[in-house]
Design a protein that fits this description.
The protein is of the alpha/beta class. The protein has 8 helices and 18 strands. 47% of the residues are buried.
């Protein structure tokens, strides 16, 4: 049996049938309890592109849940704001009608200290005011849903390979910059659906494991009996554990972080130890967090039990 600290989920939209964009306080508490049982010690509920007033309401509700969390649940470490300040050309599953320009005054309408990560398209910040403001607040800036390639102000990139400039053999792109910049962390959805196994292998050979942040990007359908769910204003279907919209566009993942650790270790894409580095050790250090749990793993890379400390 293997023993580790808890996993840190920094990009998750929901699970267990619970959608963080419309969950009640009680549902958020339930999600925290269930995430802890899946080995997660801390998480960043991801608030995505939507009506700016709804975003503001979501931030307030999540902040209220965070204030009153018992110690024996997965702790809300902050909010990951994914949008609405993204590039419409790389919107992915995000609803284009709610995408906003990178404008400081617009951001201030939702500004709150609980926001710890912001995914945005830096190439669209023509004045630099928004990026400079967020940097001054020590918010981790993540290039995502973007066609940019300049990472000089970025701490990380959001779900590497997905919704960004792809690999090219001439010129610059988001992917090339992320792979070549040794100072930038990369999120990656290693569920073997968002990124193929061979590309995962190439990525882990190129990128220092200490700069890899495994994420699930899980949707409410993850670990749920539901086969469809309205998400981002459209119906998302679970097609043999691949989550897609009616056009076949891949959405988030049906896996949680513990499933992704197992997927990588079972296929020997990463060793179990390196999968834990990329899903726990790196995030704990990156966000300066302490784990409130110890996870006991079976030899088949499944969780045996979770112990609160």
């Amino acid at each position: 049996m293997k023993v580790t600290f808890g996993l840190v989920e920094q990009h998750i939209h929901g699970a267990f049938g619970i959608d963080f964009m419309n969950a009640t306080i009680e549902e958020m508490k339930t999600a925290s309890q269930l995430l802890a049982q899946s080995g997660v010690c801390a998480y960043f509920p991801t608030v995505m592109t939507d009506d700016i007033n709804l975003i503001k309401d979501r931030i307030a509700l999540i902040k209220e849940v965070q204030k009153n969390q018992p110690s024996n649940t997965a702790q809300i470490a902050g909010i990951h704001l994914e949008g609405p300040f993204i590039n419409p050309e790389k919107s992915g599953i995000h609803d284009k009608k709610y995408i906003l320009p990178l404008d400081l005054e617009l951001y201030k309408k939702i500004d709150d200290e609980i926001i710890k990560i912001v995914t945005l398209a830096p190439e669209l910040d023509k004045t630099g005011e928004l990026i400079n403001y967020l940097k001054a607040k020590n918010i981790k800036l993540s290039l995502g849903h973007s066609l940019g390639s300049d990472l000089k102000n970025m701490s990380q990139v959001t779900h590497l390979y997905n919704a960004m400039g792809s690999f090219v053999t001439r010129g610059n792109s988001s992917v090339i910059s992320a792979l070549c910049d040794d100072g930038v962390y990369v999120e990656i959805i290693a569920d073997s659906m968002h990124v193929s196994d061979d590309v995962l292998k190439i990525t882990f050979k190129q990128k220092d494991i200490e700069k890899v942040l495994l994420i699930s990007d899980a949707l409410p359908l993850a670990h749920s009996d539901k086969k469809e769910h309205i998400f981002a204003g459209q119906k998302i279907y679970n097609c043999e554990n691949k989550l897609v919209n009616a056009d076949g566009t891949i959405a988030g993942s049906s896996m949680l972080l513990c499933d992704i650790v197992k997927n990588l270790a079972d296929k020997e894409i990463l060793t179990f130890d390196n999968a834990i580095i990329a899903s726990s050790t790196n995030q704990l250090k990156y966000h300066q967090l302490n784990s409130n749990i110890i996870v006991h793993w079976n030899n088949d890379n499944t969780i045996n039990k979770v112990e609160f400390i």
